[in-house]
Design goal:
Blueprint (H helix, E strand, L loop, with lengths): L1 H12 L3 H17 L6 H17 L7 H4 L3
């Protein structure tokens, strides 16, 4: 599978910028349809809950370098 993804990526990168833009727009559109319909208030509540969680358990945080692994 990684070889197929690498090939798709390589081919996509060789597209003219307007065509690459169309591809990106379509892919993002496909991804966004799978996301739950969440309001700004719900997202704020999720962010606030995560901040409280991090404040209460500093071990739950990760460094910027650790984040690069993902």
């Amino acid at each position: 599978m990684p070889a197929a993804i690498d090939q798709v990526y390589s081919t996509a990168c060789s597209l003219a910028l307007p065509d690459l833009g169309v591809l990106v727009t379509r892919l993002l559109g496909e991804l966004s349809t799978a996301l739950p319909n969440t309001t700004d208030d719900e997202l704020t509540a999720i962010a606030d809950a995560r901040e409280v969680e991090l404040d209460s358990d500093s071990a739950a945080t990760i460094t910027h370098d650790d984040m690069q692994v993902f």
